[in-house]
Design goal:
The protein is mostly helical. The protein contains 7 helices and no strands. Helix 1 (3-37) packs antiparallel against helix 5 and helix 2 packs parallel to helix 6 (144-174). The longest helix is centred in the middle third of the chain and has 52 residues, at 56-107. It starts with a helix and ends in a 12-residue tail after the last helix.
C-alpha cells in the first residue's frame, strides 16, 4: 500500500468518524425534540383549564386550531421551506420557532395570548422532517430501515417518560404548600429542552455545513 492509499484510507476513516459523531448528535437533538413535544398532549387540557378556566369546548376549539395550523405547515410549507432554505436552516428555524412557542405558552397571562402563539408551535414542525433527512444522509441505503426504527424507538421512549415528567412538574408548580406558584413550569421546561436542542443542533450541523457528508451510495452487494 503506497502513501496515496494510506492518505485515502485515513480520510475515509475520518469521514466515517465524523459521520457517526454527527448522527449521534442529531439523535440527541431529536430526543430532546420528542421529549418537549410530550408537554403538549399531556398538559394542554390541564394547563388551559387551570390557568384560563377554559371549558371543554374551549379546549376542543383550541385543539382544532392546533390541528389546522399543523396540517397547513406539514402539508403546504415544509417541502418548499426545506427546498428554499436547506435542511440545516430548516432544522434551526424550526427549533427556534418551537422555543418561542413554548416560551409564549409558559408566559401567556391570558387565553387569547396562547392562541396567538399556536402558529409558532405549528412552525416548529418544520424541524423534524429536515432533521430526519439530515440523519438519513449519514447511513447507507441498506440501513435506512434501521434508522427509522431507531427514530420510532426514541419517540416511544420519550412518549413514556414525557407525560409523568410534565404532569409532576405541573403538580409541584401549583401545589399550595410551595411559596412559588408557577403554572407555566411544564412549558418552561419544554422551552429549556428545545433551547438545548437548538444549541446542540447549531454545533452539530455547523460541522455538517463546513464539510458536508457525501450522499450515501448503494452497496456493491445490492
Amino acid at each position: 500500500m503506497d502513501k496515496m492509499d494510506l492518505r485515502i484510507l485515513a480520510q475515509l476513516q475520518a469521514d466515517s468518524s465524523r459521520s457517526h459523531a454527527e448522527l449521534a448528535g442529531l439523535s440527541v437533538v431529536l430526543t430532546l425534540y420528542y421529549l418537549a413535544h410530550n408537554s403538549l398532549p399531556s398538559m394542554w387540557a390541564l394547563y388551559t383549564e387551570y390557568r384560563y378556566s377554559w371549558s371543554h369546548r374551549d379546549v376542543g376549539n383550541s385543539l382544532t386550531l392546533v390541528g389546522v395550523c399543523a396540517a397547513l405547515v406539514s402539508g403546504v410549507l415544509v417541502g418548499p421551506f426545506v427546498k428554499r432554505f436547506g435542511e440545516r436552516r430548516s432544522v434551526l428555524s424550526g427549533l427556534l420557532f418551537g422555543v418561542l412557542g413554548f416560551a409564549g405558552f409558559a408566559l401567556a397571562a391570558r387565553g387569547w395570548i396562547i392562541l396567538a402563539v399556536i402558529p409558532f408551535i405549528a412552525l416548529w414542525g418544520i424541524a423534524a422532517p429536515a432533521m430526519q433527512s439530515l440523519m438519513s444522509r449519514h447511513v447507507d441505503p441498506s440501513s435506512q430501515g434501521k434508522l427509522q426504527g431507531a427514530i420510532n424507538s426514541l419517540r416511544a421512549v420519550t412518549g413514556m417518560a414525557g407525560p409523568p415528567l410534565f404532569t409532576q412538574i405541573f403538580a409541584i408548580a401549583i401545589a399550595p404548600k410551595y411559596a412559588v406558584h408557577l403554572p407555566g413550569a411544564p412549558y418552561f421546561l419544554a422551552t429549556l429542552l428545545l433551547l438545548s436542542s437548538l444549541l446542540l443542533a447549531v454545533y452539530v450541523t455547523r460541522a455538517h455545513a463546513a464539510s458536508p457528508v457525501r450522499e450515501p451510495v448503494s452497496s456493491t452487494n445490492d
